[in-house]
Amino acid sequence: MSTTDWSLPETDVFDQIRAALDDDADAVLATVIDVEGSAYRRPGAKMILRPDGSGAGSITAGCLEDEVRALAADVLADGDPRVETWDLTGEDDVWGLGVGCNGVITVLLEPLGDSYRPVVEARLGGDPIGVATAVGGEGGTSAGSPAFGARAYYDGEGFSGIAAGVFSDPDVLAELEPAMATLYEGGKAETVTVEMNGGTVEVFLEGVRPPPELVVFGSGPDVAPVVELAKLVDFRVTVVSFRGGKAGEERFPRADEVVSSAPADVDTACEWDEDTYAVVMTHNFLDDRIALEELLETPVPYIGLMGPHDRFEEMCEELAEDGRTLTEAERERIHTPIGLSLGGDSPYQIGYSIVAELLAVANDRTPQHLSRRAGPIHDRVEVGADPSESPE
Amino acid sequence: MSTTDWSLPETDVFDQIRAALDDDADAVLATVIDVEGSAYRRPGAKMILRPDGSGAGSITAGCLEDEVRALAADVLADGDPRVETWDLTGEDDVWGLGVGCNGVITVLLEPLGDSYRPVVEARLGGDPIGVATAVGGEGGTSAGSPAFGARAYYDGEGFSGIAAGVFSDPDVLAELEPAMATLYEGGKAETVTVEMNGGTVEVFLEGVRPPPELVVFGSGPDVAPVVELAKLVDFRVTVVSFRGGKAGEERFPRADEVVSSAPADVDTACEWDEDTYAVVMTHNFLDDRIALEELLETPVPYIGLMGPHDRFEEMCEELAEDGRTLTEAERERIHTPIGLSLGGDSPYQIGYSIVAELLAVANDRTPQHLSRRAGPIHDRVEVGADPSESPE
Fold first, then answer.
1. Residues B54 and B187 in one domain
2. Which domain holds residue A89?
3. Could you point out which of A16, A76, A119, B40 has its C-alpha 20 to 30 Å from the C-alpha of A321?
């Protein structure tokens, strides 16, 4: 497996999982289901491994990928899912002197099958989904038992697929639901332990969300670096051009969609929701102004506007003259000058600053040095059920 | 010219300029020498244009590239440099309603020739250089006169190449030197007006600096996204691997250099200076610790260390036990956890956060939303001589 496949954006990993399902190809899906201590990736990180040794995605910073690949052949031969835990903290030193990662990492390995299909279809179709997988416990849900690896799905309102294994027990579902709802909303994953028939069951709860949407208005050459960088960090990207002739998919081959529209038709050019981020960079004052007005009518939380602050103030004055005075809340949604203050003025450096701002806003972060920030690097999610400390 | 050529990192543009010089190929060099108001790119932005219409680099957000390309043929035919000014603010509206950029942009177009060779060789050889070009004035330095386009070079101590045109006048050099020194230090460019023989001469002063150096310690797959992103924003990148067998240039094809070293030999593995930034991500506690110790002996202003804060504190305790207590100033140079707080945990998202921090530190910026920052987007340089408001 090359580093290129290892570092693929999550959407591309899902594309490869879907391709394997479509082809009914033999493959193993490996998913991090629990992390104790610090690790490069969080629960929910996944990779697909094929019998020829190739694969896509990552579960650690390269520390476990070789071992997981070696196990994948066994999993395919057995046809059974299994859970493996690696303690990378070392025996004598809690910080992993001799090995790569620092933490106890638990991975679910399973022959890729149709039970993961609903997750893939939702993720690639633009819908969030929750998935609950039985990954341990006593008796009927322990490794090797028929219910091990059974799945139920969560759509924000309730579970489906509940006929299988532990999920046929209404008490189990009731206990899982608050945690599942939280993880579904946050797009996070966690293994929890629930009571069943006096024993315990470990269930991996994964909230899978589609990537955030980026809509870029513009058709100049400066759009391409923004698209390229946004795709690398896994936005779904639509380019909206008001100059049909100049745009076109061949100019923005990395965009998911290239739309030709009129400024006044912005509201119908895309689906607008709260996980959609708009960047306005037509370099045309009038087009920018109309796009801005239209975008304010949508629920998008972020409107980045290229150009200096004075230009925006001029725009506001014109709007006010037309009887359209922006509220404080509307101004809060508009980021101009666009981007984070990182310095540099080349096309990629400008694009970099824009996409850095998009990431911070989409992930609800205050841009600052992590070294100056209190708390863990990754946000932790507090879930209703007790997180299992050791899912094995 | 494709958007890919348009958005090339500056080093790649210089590579193409050198290739044209080496091949003695016909080409026009276009350089932004003055900007009034706001523009996508700053003075010093440049592109090379070839007779077949191809080119590399950018001078605006695509607003002037077509016009400049059209002029390039004339410039080649004439064999003479010329200066063109575009007022993109529009006649009736100061914000450029109908056109792309907002500003008055002045561009020097010249047949690419050996007078630019010293600049190219310095930039690509890793040395800063200043270059002064006569771009206007009265009498002997006006457009079309023999001294128009004449050059002198600045090495941080004084001018060379001073036999030509206006630069043979010691008073002119004395007047230019403070501004040149400031622009040389800051890597900025500006057109200034100086007195000569009772008249005035306009001189474009360009401080050209090599890209900042990034040295990444590590050989895991997570190194590749950092290298790729850092190259896009124009760092010169060296990967240092402590595991010779695993590294190698084929694994990091985008790196400028891949070095195999022992942790204790870090000080000799590269040239270390104040424009070099180190990222330590071996994922091995002992290797990281030794690299850290060695890097603290170099003048690098930034040492990014991957891993959680606790891991660094553990490292500090071990160092203290060995009698090596870090000073407050040393701790200030170490950024851990590495990166800006942008959220996300995929390999590219982690790499993005790291390179964003590198940009902010290299450009001396406090990471924050530009919309929340006072002052202009681009840092302005105060130079000794009066900047010319209209170099034409």
1. no
2. 1-112
3. B40
Helix (H, G, I), strand (E, B) or coil at A67: helix
CA nearest to A369 within chain B: B340
A274: pLDDT strictly greater than 90: yes
Q: Flag if A341 and B308 touch (Cβ within 8 Å).
A: no
CB contact under 8 A, A220 and B100: yes
Q: Which of A40, A232, A310 sits opposite B348 (nearest CB)?
A: A232
Q: Is the pLDDT of residue B388 over 50?
A: no
Q: What is the ipTM of this complex?
A: 0.92
**Residue A362 and residue A262 share a domain:** yes
| Rounded Cα gap, residues A285 and A310, in angstroms | 12
Residue A390 lies in a domain: no
Are B369 and B285 in contact by the 8 Å Cβ rule? The answer is no
* pLDDT at position B144: 64
Report the domain count for chain B: 3
Co-location of A326 and A289 in the same domain: yes
Contact (Cβ atoms closer than 8 angstroms) between residue A104 and residue A60: no
Scanning every residue of chain A, which has its alpha carbon at the shortest distance from the alpha carbon of B373? A341
Q: For residue range B199-244, list pLDDT tens digits in order.
A: 889 999 999 999 999 999 998 899 999 999 999 999 999 999 986 6
User: What's the token pair of residue A387?
Assistant: 């997180």
How far apart (Å, rounded) are the C-alpha atoms in residues A213 and A128? 13
**A325 C-beta neighbours (distance < 10 Å), count:** 11
Q: Answer with the residue of higher pLDDT: A243 or B8.
A: B8
Rounded to 5°, the CA angle B51-B54-B58 comes to: 115
Shared domain for A164 and A237, answered yes or no, is no
Whole-model pTM: value is 0.92
The pLDDT confidence band at residue A164, using thresholds 50, 70 and 90, is: confident
Looking at beta carbons, which residues of chain B come within 8 Å of A58?
221-222, 346-347
